[in-house]
Design goal:
With 321 residues, the protein is an alpha/beta fold. The chain has helices at 6-12, 15-31, 75-79, 105-123, 138-147, 167-175, 231-236, 244-249, 253-258, 270-275, 296-313; strands at 2-4, 34-36, 40-43, 50-58, 63-71, 84-91, 98-103, 130-134, 155-159, 180-182, 193-196, 201-205, 215-218, 227-229, 238-241, 267-269, 288-291, 317-318. Bound molecules: nicotinamide-adenine-dinucleotide.
Length: 321
């Protein structure tokens, strides 16, 4: 069994490897070769922590395992540790023996950024020039850095509920050599691609803030009650997701479904577009929306990829187990 501690991941994992792993596993989910197990998430009544497991099996990639972890709100203040903590465990699908234990914190950020990037590659207009960011927290920097690699973007515009955080994403744009401008929400109409990544429970982006032809990746809503965009926007858009069951229950589509604005049959798997079974964008005026809810198979896919990279570089700790 291999052990890859969190400290090793940053030097090993690349955005390209994360993109490739997530694109492949979304395709496997849509073809039926991979499936996610029911998610367990519990308030454990200790340290106000939320703890759970996300697992699955990918028969195409032969990846079996789970991510265990959650959110410990007191970590930073009490112990100087980050509040999100997770570890991925991989198992040999032929024998059930554990094959790897991999630090999951950075991988979670990379796989989430890869998901919106995969949606941009497959759904955004090829001539997209302006990226609009809604959100400027920890995850927003990862989403923007990865998205900028998906086209010839000439400008980043950004809005955040807490405007003092905007320099976080301005820095990423500047490092990529792309000019940044802070805008109001109606100013998002200039964007060709919009990524929302906030922890909001009420919509920020309204349907009339979005121009025809825009691709929107809604990445923040992963829990019942959260919401980043007006439900009417989903009715204006063609809606794609990583996993339909999550999209309509805990993802951005939960609200449009509850309000009767769209039906489950109008939410499509992004993997079907990757596989060529769904046409994806069919016109330059169409609005496409990706509801990225985050699935365990994404975590397993990037963990397996980083294990391969570690083995190639000979840096994993091997334990006789
Ligand atoms: P963070 O705490 O670093 O940032 C939170 C962001 O939300 C900031 O931009 C903040 O200004 C904004 N925000 C807070 N309250 C708001 C409000 N009322 N209205 C609008 N915006 C508000 O968190 P993060 O690590 O960047 O994560 C952001 C979100 O992404 C979280 O909801 C998290 O659960 C979610 N997430 C989703 C996935 C996935 O796979 N879909 C993966 C990781 C994180």
């Amino acid at each position: 069994m291999l052990i890859l501690p969190p400290r090793e991941i940053a030097d090993l994992m690349t955005r390209a490897a994360a993109f490739d792993a997530v694109e492949k596993v979304f395709a496997a989910m849509a073809s039926g070769a991979a499936y996610n197990f029911p998610v367990v998430r519990e308030a454990i009544g200790h340290e106000d922590a939320l703890y759970g497991f996300k697992g699955g099996f990918d028969r195409a990639g032969l990846t079996l395992g789970l991510k265990a972890g959650g959110y410990w709100p007191n970590n930073l203040e009490k112990r100087g540790l980050i509040n999100h903590q997770s570890t991925v465990f991989l198992f040999d699908p032929d024998t059930g023996k554990p094959s790897a234990m991999v630090g999951g914190n950075l991988l979670t950020a990379l796989r989430t950024a890869a998901a919106s990037s995969v949606s941009i590659k497959h759904l955004a207009r090829k001539d997209a020039k302006v990226i609009g960011m809604i959100g400027a927290g920890h995850q927003a920097t990862f989403q923007l850095r990865a998205a900028l690699e998906q086209g010839n973007f000439e400008k980043v515009i950004g809005w955040n509920y807490h405007p003092e955080m905007l320099p976080n994403i301005e820095k990423v744009a500047t490092e990529a050599g792309v000019p940044f401008q802070a805008v109001t929400l109606p100013g998002m109409v200039e964007a060709d691609v919009i990524i929302s990544i906030t922890s909001a429970f009420a919509p920020s982006l309204m349907a009339d803030h979005v121009a025809p032809g825009t691709h929107i990746a809604c990445m923040g809503t992963d829990t019942k009650g959260k919401q980043e965009v007006e439900a009417a926007l989903l009715a204006r858009a063609t809606v794609y997701t990583d996993e339909i069951a999550q999209s309509i229950s805990i993802g951005e589509a939960q609200h449009a479904i509850a309000e009767g604005l769209i039906t489950e049959a109008e939410v499509f798997q992004i993997g079907a577009v990757i596989n060529g079974d769904n046409p994806g964008r069919t016109s330059d005026e169409q609005i496409t929306l990706f509801d990225g809810t985050g699935v365990g198979l994404q975590d397993l896919a990037v963990a397996a990829a980083v294990v391969d990279l570690a083995q190639a570089r000979g840096v994993a700790i091997e334990v006789d187990f």
